[in-house]
Structure formats: structure tokens, C-alpha cells
Amino acid sequence: MTPPSPGTAFETAAAAVRPTDLAGAGAAADARTDLLTKPKGSLGRLEALGSRLAAIARVCPPPVPERATVCVFAGDHGVLAQGVSPWPAEVTAQMVANFCAGGAAVTVFARQACADVLVTDVGVSTPIPADSPTLLRRTVRRGTADLSTGPAMSPAEARAALDVGAEVAARAVTDGAQLLVTGEMGIGNTTPAAALIAAFTGRPAEEVTGRGTGIDDETLHRKTDIVAGAVARLAADASPLTVLAEVGGLEIAALAGLIVGGAAAGVPVLVDGVISAAAALVASALVPDARGYLIAGHLSAEPGAAAALHALRLEPLLALGMRLGEGSGATLAIPLVQAAARVLSEMATFGEANVDDAPAEQAAPDHPEPAGTMASTASSTA
Fold first, then answer.
1. Distance from C-alpha of 233 to C-alpha of 254, rounded to nearest angstrom
2. What pLDDT, in 10s, does the model give residues 40-64?
3. Sheet harboring 269-271: ordered strands across?
4. 369 tagged catalytic
5. Residue 99 phi, psi (nearest 5)
């Protein structure tokens, strides 16, 4: 790993990231899950999620992440000049204003989940027609350069965007966030996301490049060629930071910084769609231990998302055919994360001596009693 220059917010966060406690708290959660008043494995992947949360928190049962903050980063892309999207760059700024006004899908879902939304302008190219206490202006530059003709940004700019993400993570956690949710906005950003996914997974461009905002076949072919050409420029031994600067985006870099900042603070990071998955690949390449703090919120319909999650060894909690971005799919998964933690602390357990001998109907009651009652009943009738 070649981290950014010493002294930056990202480098400080990177140095603070520890491996999650799989052997201690994670294993204890596995054991506790097997003693809950249910057949083993009957809660499916929620059981593994609970253990992951315990490993992240380094305690079993893990705290329920009641307070979640959706961190949305916005930036524009020079490659839009190549016609990779039918939408103009001005839409990015308009959508940031929509976030601030509470009228976007992610803000609707955040209200449903009782989550906060924090929006950061890290590289929007046009003026944002709004201001709000929930809008941070941390512009590194007004959009990236065209990645089809050269580097999207300089290494220094990539470092600065990583710093922004790490700073936002620290701010959110200081303000009480126990769960960070990744979100983004940037017209044209599925192109750099596809390039990053191709570069970090070794998949060909045609496997990871999708239709984004709904482009036609001709535009998809052009977009795929652009992704392939940009990745072909990269040296085989290019560092993760170099890859990010060459073919990435400012909001993607900031998301990578957020992930590492969340890991440094010891809180889980719920990953949204294909843009966030690309950022997760960047973060994991820069700071490998950060991967243990990731939870895949949903499976985006964009083809690169499945490739990225496979490389990260993450299974998505939801698969609803969504591809909006913004953090919308991951925000819908917040209650599942909370439930996985809550069940470990609130669901009743049988005594260890009674679990193996308990009849199936006792181990899986239709209407279990409040916590503690089932365990005491089982021991009194043994």
C-alpha cells in the first residue's frame, strides 16, 4: 500500500484502521446466535451480519446502530463531453439542491429510516442553487478532466478528495453516527466507476460497463470503448492512488476516504450501488483492513456492481433492481443492519445444556416469550 502523504486526514485515518475482531467478538456472536430460541441458521444471512457487526464493534452483542448518517458526495466528470450520458452536468448541482430540500429519493428513504443526510460538494462544476446546514462545500476542483484523453485528476487532487471523505466520516461520528451510509451524485459517474472496477478486478470493460441513466446501444458501445481505453493506459504495477487519479472521480475518492474514516472510527459502513462499490475497491486497495467494516446494502442493476462485490467478498442485503445511486438502496437496508444487531441483544436464548435436546417446536416457537423467559422455562423443564 502506498498511502497519501503523511499528515493528511486520510493518512491519519488509514493508520488507525485495525482488523475487525473476528476471532473474539465475531466468534462469540456466532456462538450466541446458535443459542438463540430458533433453529440454527434459520435467520439466514442476518446471522452472519450480526457476527460482522460484533467483530466491527469488538464486543458481543454489538450495539444497535440507532443513528445512521447518509454521506452523499457530489462531483462532475470531464468525460461527460464524450456523450456518455444524455443528461447535462447542471443536473448534478440541481440534484444537490434537491437533497438539501429533502425531495430526493435518498432523503425520502432517510426519513423513513430516521437517518441523517449530509451532502458534500467535492467537485460540482456548476453553481449549486441552494444552501443548507446539511451541505458542506469542500471543493477540490470543479469537476474532473476527461479521463478518455488523460488523467482525470492529479495525485494531489485525489489525495485531497480522500481527505475530504475522511474528514466527513470523523465529523459524522463525532456528531453521533453509529452507522455510515455511502451516497453520491455526479452525472456521468458510472463511466469512471466502471473504469475503476475493471482496473481493480481485471474484468474486461464490456463486463462492467452499464447503461447508467439509460443510454442506447450506440452510446453504451462508445462508453465501453472509453472505459477500455482508459484502463489500457494504466501500468500493470500502478498504485491504487495512481489508478484513482487516472480514471476515478472526486466523489468516488471522497467515498473511499469516508470508508477508511469509518473503519478508523470502528463503525460499520453500509455500501450503496456501483459508484460506492467502486469506491470500496479503492478503499480496500489502499487500506486492506477497511474491507472488514463494509456491508453491502444492495445489488445495483449496473453490471459492475456484482463484479465489485464479488471481488470484495460481500453479499448484498437487498436486490431490488435499483440503480439510482444517491445512497438510496443502502438506506433502505438500514433497518436490516439494526435488526441484525438487535436480535443478538434482545432475543432469548436457551441454556447450553438444553439446546441440543430441545424439540423443534420448542426451539422455534411461533410467538417467543420476552427475552429471558424462554431460557428460564427451558431450564426449569429440563
1. 23
2. 999 999 999 999 999 999 999 999 9
3. 135-137, 116-123, 68-75, 179-185, 269-271, 294-296
4. no
5. -60, -45
Which residue in the list 251, 326, 346, 361 is annotated as catalytic?
326
Name the pLDDT band for 350 (thresholds 50, 70, 90). Answer: confident
Q: Do 173 and 259 touch, CB atoms closer than 8 A?
A: no
The answer to whether 307 and 201 have CB atoms below 8 angstroms apart is yes
Residue found by looking up cell 488509514 in the block: 14
Looking at the structure, do residues 51 and 186 belong to the same domain, yes or no? no
Q: Kindly state the helix (H) or strand (E) to which residue 137 belongs, with its residue range.
A: strand 135-137
- Overall domain count for the chain: 2
Q: Half-sphere exposure of 287 toward its Cβ, with a 13 Å CA cutoff? A: 33
Quote the cell numbers at residue 157.
487532487
Phi and psi at 303, nearest 5°, equal: -60, -30
Residue 30 lies in a domain: yes
- The grid coordinates listed for 10 are 486520510
Query: In DSSP terms, which residues pair with 180 in a beta bridge?
Result: 69, 269
> Do 149 and 123 lie in a common domain?
yes
Structural domain ending residue among the three candidates 336, 352, 370: 336
Query: At 27, which CATH number?
Result: 1.10.1610.10
Closest of 201, 175, 211, 194 to residue 71, by C-alpha: 175
* Three cell numbers written together for 315: 453479499
- Convert the pLDDT of each residue in 67-87 to its tens digit: 999 999 999 999 999 999 999
Same domain for 24 and 102: no
Contact yes or no for 50/83 (Cβ under 8 A) = no
